[in-house]
Q: What sequence folds into this?
């Protein structure tokens, strides 16, 4: 049995847990804890402190694991551990919170430093009225035009599938061009 | 869709860059602590600017740029207060007081000055309103944003360079092993001495900053100076585990097998 993994990362409350929950065949093994900081509690009640863990069985010989990283900076010691051996990673960005864009950029660069694997960026919460336009976000995140950035609604399985597929197409394309 | 946020998270320079690259048309409203600025763009170029709490009339702009005297300004305010800027501009040109170039250069200078003042705003909210044009009767220009962005970037560059030089505050410092270096002979500031007193491979830079009551920017500046002077160097803190060696994701090194694996994953996810 071979297992491969992808990592879903991004700032706090970007929608990583929901993203994995939308496609995982098992209930997501989540290490959520009540939030202690009053400021962060205004955004949501609980947060991931170690990792989220989802699974998609491909066939008898192959299983894909999806790992969600904790979004809060103080748990970033987990990032390096989770990134080990990943096929690629997805950076989730909350389209309605431009205050998190800089952090998203920093997380992206950190993961690129851990492993030069393919990645894509998902602009989550595109169904919200105050969501930024994807192209505006691309400029804001200073993403190269070659980096795929896709609209996403993490609670919608179809958009999550599209994001995962685009990452796999990117991995395949990079293998074919002989890049890392 | 909404293009709005807080200047703390998204600077004026970044906003101008976005407007420039996306060739946006519309009005950027920036609500600062003491004033509200309106910047209007047409296809990514600045066409108009105003501060809400400031006289934005052409007469005021011409007075500020010394194109007219104080008494001329007062006369215009008294006699031509009902005229729009465009009407006043035409009147001054036709009367031979000023040339069209005089007026346009004054307006450009004034708009650029407003943007330069905005670079100092670090607090406030912004929103971009698509297709909102300048008020009627106002004279518009076309100012490329590149030079303005470069100036804004200069101010940010120092901070970014420091972040690049010292990307993590979780590393420690140690004195360089350079024989003959005597700290007593080096001219250090009070802040630098405070940092020097905590240099030890057991203390992270972040801990030193906390102990010395310095901000991230301040500690980075001091540490950068000490490194450049060859007095200290960055080291992994004692007790920190070495970095994990990256292991490749695939069990097999065979490219065909790797591609087959990815294609199986694609098929499976499509079928979800």
A:
């Amino acid at each position: 049995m071979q297992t491969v993994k992808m990592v879903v990362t991004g700032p706090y409350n970007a929608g990583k847990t929901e993203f994995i929950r939308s496609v995982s065949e098992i209930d997501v093994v989540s290490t959520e804890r009540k939030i202690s900081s009053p400021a962060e509690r205004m955004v949501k009640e609980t947060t991931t402190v170690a990792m989220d863990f989802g699974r998609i069985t491909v066939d008898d010989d192959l299983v894909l694991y999806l790992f969600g990283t904790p979004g809060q900076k103080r748990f970033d010691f987990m990032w390096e551990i989770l990134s080990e051996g990943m096929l690629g990673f997805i950076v989730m960005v909350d389209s309605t919170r431009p205050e998190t864009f800089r952090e998203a950029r920093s997380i992206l660069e950190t993961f690129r430093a851990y492993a030069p694997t393919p990645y894509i960026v998902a602009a989550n919460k595109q169904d919200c009225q105050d969501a930024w336009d994807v192209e505006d976000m691309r400029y804001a995140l200073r993403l190269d035009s070659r980096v795929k950035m896709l609209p996403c609604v993490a609670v919608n399985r179809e958009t999550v599938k599209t994001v995962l597929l685009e990452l796999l197409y990117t991995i395949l394309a990079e293998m074919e061009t002989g890049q890392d | 869709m909404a293009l709005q946020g807080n200047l703390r998270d998204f600077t004026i320079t970044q906003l101008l860059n976005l407007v420039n690259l996306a060739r946006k048309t519309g009005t950027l409203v920036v609500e600062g602590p003491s004033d509200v600025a309106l910047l209007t763009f047409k296809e990514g170029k600045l066409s108009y600017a105003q501060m809400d709490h400031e006289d934005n009339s052409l007469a005021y702009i011409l007075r500020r740029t010394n194109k007219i005297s104080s008494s001329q300004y007062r006369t215009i305010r008294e006699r031509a207060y009902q005229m729009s800027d465009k009407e006043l501009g035409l009147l001054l040109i036709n009367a031979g007081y000023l040339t069209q170039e005089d007026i346009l250069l004054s307006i450009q200078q004034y708009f650029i000055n407003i943007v330069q003042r905005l670079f100092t705003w670090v607090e406030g909210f912004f929103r971009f309103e698509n297709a909102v044009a300048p008020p009627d009767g106002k004279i518009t220009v076309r100012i490329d944003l590149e030079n303005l962005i470069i100036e804004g970037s200069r101010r940010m560059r120092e901070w970014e360079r420091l972040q690049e030089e010292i990307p993590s505050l979780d590393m420690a410092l140690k004195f360089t092993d350079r024989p003959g270096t005597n700290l007593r002979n080096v001219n250090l500031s009070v802040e630098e001495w405070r940092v020097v007193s905590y240099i030890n491979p057991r203390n992270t830079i972040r801990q030193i900053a906390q102990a010395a009551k310095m901000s991230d920017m301040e500690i980075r500046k001091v540490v950068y100076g000490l490194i450049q002077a060859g007095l200290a160097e960055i080291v992994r803190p004692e007790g920190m585990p070495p970095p994990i060696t990256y292991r490749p994701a695939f069990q097999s090194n065979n490219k065909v097998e790797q591609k087959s694996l990815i294609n199986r994953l694609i098929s499976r996810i499509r079928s979800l």
